[in-house]
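Consider the following input, taken from an annotated entry for PIG-P domain-containing protein (Oryza rufipogon).
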Amino acid sequence: MCKQSRLIDTQVKKEKERKGDMEEWSPPSSPSLVVRSPRQTVSLLRNRHPWRESRSPPTSTSTSLAGGPKLSEVYGFVGSITTVIATTVYLVWAYMPERCLRSLGITYYPSRYWALAVPSFVIVATALCMVVYVGFNFLATPPPTSFNTIFDEYSRERTMFDPANANATGEEEEVERPIEPISDISIDQINSLMRDFCGS
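Applying the prediction step yields:
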């Protein structure tokens, strides 16, 4: 009995000391922890939040649900489960015989015609979109006889670098040649290059 009372007395004393330490607060000895201005107070309050340690606000992908998985993981999981369920329902609707569906109590469902019609429509629409896209590109391209294939209002003529003007001092030292700006190759240069290529 005495041992138990001594144990209880020591626990009570430790609890009183702990409460006394909490009541008798003294300023921190470290000067970096002393708040000297309202701006420092705000910055210390901001640094108390765990998500602010990375100096970036939480986003929908980094926010977690009460310490659980990220929202992006939840959306991915729900999306994959939904896809599996939708595929299973589609295959059961498309391939299971009618008497089996009625024995399961499923009496209302769309006509089986749509099980083949919808995928066929999607495939044909995709192919037609590709053909129409290429057709619009052909319509937007000028004919080969048009001068717009050679130059138009967006053409940039080549500017030639003149070392005589650059070296106005008359010295014979090497002049640094700048990188030429982006420009279009003129038709006469293309013709001469093609003539040289075909002649060799």
